[in-house]
Give the backbone structure.
Amino acid sequence: MYTSALNSEGDLIYIDEAKKGNQYYCPGCEGEFILRKSGNTGKGSKRPHFAHNELTSNCTAESVLHYSFKKELCNLLEEHVNEKNALNIRWTCPNCSDQHEGNLLANAVSVTEEHNLNVCQPDIALLDADENVIAAIEVVVTHSPEEKVLKYYRDNDIVLIQINLSSDEDLKNISELISAPSIVDYCFNHTCSNNQGYSVDRRVIAYRGKCGRCVSPIVRYAVEIKSSFGSWLSFDFTDSEIDLVKSNRNNIKINTDSTTKGRHPVSICMNCRRARARHGGGRRF
């Protein structure tokens, strides 16, 4: 039972919007649809649906669901890009199980359907200002992308966003499903093997701060991360980043976050250190 169709203007509509007397066509094969909407709700009655006037062997309910979801999602993404609105998504890394979130459209300036990459044609492609594909969105009803396609994405720094569909009900939850995709093949964890195939630019920065105890001026450090999902600051340093800070400054100690176990360099407050030296005792650095 098909629950979506194209009207005579080529717009996608759902069964609850359909009216008797109008013409409707299959989104998959473009064949003519018949609206079956009796209004009966008793025992044995069928729920409203569209049906082919002449059944075609290569058109299935799964293909129509795929087309309808892809079309509506593409419209949603284009609207966000044109209005320069963020679209925040959250996901779990399939390798290390870390939780992540970011703006899917941080670097996207255009959206295309079935973009030809020679090796494959992703359902929806997000392109940057240089017209490079930065993310491929695959809508999956029955068949997941082949391994050669996944390899192509990794080799060409294209982030895979996969959305698995299970029924026509998913058409009512497009915003929710893109906000929490089934698979995002991307990780910010610098120790995760998953991020080796994608570019995550990291740069150590120093900035002015204050001592948490005596509020004297000190230098603080962070890692500026730039990725397909935007830019932000992190306080989880790699060993080489810690070594870089230590090579440039002498008054550095290394702290470990009790929750994440991430290590980060911290400037020693010389004012507090002198005060401890004058009065004796206290914690040693």
About this structure: Residues 165 and 247 are 52 Å apart (CA to CA). The chain has a mean pLDDT of 86.
